[in-house]
Amino acid sequence: MRAWYNSSWNEVVRELESDFKYGLTEDRVKQNRKNFGDNKTLNLKNKSFIILFLKHMSKLYCILGILITIFLFYTYNWKSAAFLCCTTLFSMLLYAIKDYKNENRLNNLRSITPQKADVVREGKLLNLKPEELVVGDIVCVEKGDIVPADLRIIECEELKVKESAISGDIKLVEKYETKIEDKELLPSDMKNILFKSSFVIEGSAKGIVVEVGENTEIGKITKDLLEENHEKSLLEESISDITNLMSKVFTFSIVLIGIYAIYAKINLAEFMELVSTIYLSLVPMHIMIIVALISLIVRKKMKESTIEIGELSSMQMLAQTNVVFVNKVGTLTEENMFVKKLFSDGEIMEINSESLEESKDNIDRMINIGLLCNDAKVNDAGKIDKGEVIERAIIEYGKENSLHKRILEREQERVFQVPEDWDKRVKTTLNRIEDKYRANVIGAVDKLLERCTHIMKNGMEVEITPKDIIDIRDADLALSEDSLYVVGFAYRNFGYQPSINENIESNLVFVGLMGFDNPLKENSVECIEYCKRLAVKPVVITDDNKIAANSVGKKLGILNKNDVALSGVEIDNMEDNELEKMVERVGIYSKISSKNKWKACSEFEKLGYNIAVTGNKFTDLPSFRAAKVGIATGKECTQITKNLGDVFIEDKDFGKLLSLIDTSRKLTRSIRDIILFNLVIAFIEFFSIIMVNIFFKQASIGFGEILWINFMPLVLCSLLIYTQNENIEGNSYEASYIDKRIFNKFNSGIILYIICVTALSVIGLIIQGKKGMFTGNIIIFTILNISPIMFSFYFVKLKDVIKNKMSSLIMVLNVIFYGVFFKISYSDYLMNLNKLLWDLKVIIVFLLIHIFLIKFIKETDIN
């Protein structure tokens, strides 16, 4: 942004060839639109639902499903065709809906964009769409409005705005029209500029548009959000890729089967029945249904723990996390502070020290300043309704010393406030004391000392000396080394009422320092150890100065021998590649801006780390987009941050976040095992179908049997594996993958199992087939139905299943459903007791072989 704040408003109007009374002419509007562009900041090019649906329709498994459905309808196989059509359509809709939601996530940004703007053009007040504004337009705003573009204020009246979308600060900011002489200001210091998407809370103003579209401050932020485009549906894409790969295997096999069908002179109807059966067995679209079910269960379970998960992909990304950025307050420390030590009259004192009485005048003045320069709200009962932790701590300390905020505010009425900002780091209120006035100032010690010319000693004002300054700095250092958050207190008296445009934050009288203790949570150190056991690097962000940050980092165990703390000022003054070289060594960041945070995240990403970032403000969103996972936290989290984050955790507790990472890893391993489980059964079904057709020249296993196995025992056994995810063996630091590499899990034991079960199916059909194909079909169906139940114990332990009520229920349901299906399909067979008893003996033999196989391959894999 050009330094419009350095020019008077009439110079800006003149430079932009406008008129503050009549505004721009239509010709000038066209010229400025051509020169400076339009006022669009949200160029969201979202794909329509139809486009996304067609995108998934173009996947190989969907194309094959549609083609087979058409052929089944052509051969009058209505039931198979209808079911395959529904399954294919469901998978396309499921993925298209998920993608559509992701495409439209950034539409939440529209909530900070105004719908209309009052603009003066050619002497007329028009109500236009914000997109129609151009540089040079004269705009009017009032209470309740959202600022439609970056404006240089021409005139205003008691104007207060909320710039949280720009600065991240939720405090109200007072604005004025006066020219600012300072150079190179941060946006938060530009008090004569109204930024687009700021909310007008009080007052009214007229201003001239100086920046539009992506050149506005909010435009730069949203541009970063739109450019950062991490894939947010990793799990769904991975499953889709695996299904596509199996579709290629199916296509290759069908070519060979087609050649065989021509040779064996199989008619078209039989061939299509065989093709549809193989497609259903080999292309595991039921995995999508299983993952959708697990997603519903997980989301419901997480919601009970006040955690909101958008989709399972978020947990998969969390499982891969190896760096996590967290704020200190509320996460590792309590969300409250208390005054622990004071410095005044050249002495550091404990709050219960006897020497406090000797410095009572100074101490009382510090408390007075802290209570008056304080935006916390105290109700009639004396309880604090809202306010920042420092403000709350001062109020509580005031009560301990019989000084009450509400009483003081009645006696010393506030006239106006000069808010704190990022660079200045001091906050001031002007209060009336009878017929005089006092500026009460609190803030960062170094910034405060720059403005002090006097010091209060024993209740008297004297000129500050170099030795006093050294003593103050030494005290600041000592308090910081004690891990205390240090705030300085000063004031200035006036015999007249100064205006807000005067520099009332100069020629101050220094009073003293307060050191605030922010207690560590009881489990903080254990959480850091837990974090390291998970092989996750904790990176802490704090508002403490660098010395206090260093002390806190060592106390928590974050900073080891080679680790360092880094301040925002240091980052701002670094060369482009300096941060990249040292980012891995930084364990704690002190007083950094949102831009610094984003930069640190980006440097980690360049080095190949998977980052999780916590935040609760709009300005945290660029960091969310730079990271693998954005985690919105806390009850005070803004709605837009919550909506655009991947995960929302109401409780800021670090232990809860780490537990979620651990749970995500177990869940990811569980889903990986479920996919592997389904693929193994798919190959067993496929090879069994092929071998039976080759040896017996007819289909013993039809579409209906495979449909039953895939959508009943397989789904139930997959849920059984999920219910045991807490008992999955493996290292807590192991981040499992779910992609095509899953085929690497097909070790010698699993391949042996596929071969053996396929052989059992063929042998069972040969043995029982002598009594008739109907009896043989029952045996082969039973073997294939038992296979998923037995193979699920490759992934879980029987003793764990028995202990878990849900797992036990699933096992019982599997047996019951099989019995029901068997009775419906083979009711005549059940009437022949002699045959039934004989076949039961055969089935028991095959069952024992299964048990031996599972035990053998598990031991083989372990060894």
Automatic annotation (TrEMBL):
Annotated Gene Ontology cellular component terms: plasma membrane
GO-annotated biological processes: intracellular potassium ion homeostasis; intracellular sodium ion homeostasis; potassium ion import across plasma membrane; proton transmembrane transport; sodium ion export across plasma membrane
Keywords from the UniProt entry: Cell membrane, Membrane, Transmembrane, Transmembrane helix
Organism, scientific name: Clostridium bovifaecis
UniProt xrefs under PANTHER family: CATION TRANSPORTING ATPASE, SODIUM/POTASSIUM-TRANSPORTING ATPASE SUBUNIT ALPHA
Primary location: membrane
Transmembrane segments: 49-74, 80-97, 249-266, 278-298, 674-696, 702-722, 750-768, 774-796, 808-826, 838-857
Subcellular location: Cell membrane
Protein name according to UniProt: Cation-transporting P-type ATPase
Pfam families: Cation_ATPase, Cation_ATPase_N, E1-E2_ATPase
Lineage of the organism: Bacteria, Bacillati, Bacillota, Clostridia, Eubacteriales
GO MF, one annotated term: nucleotide binding
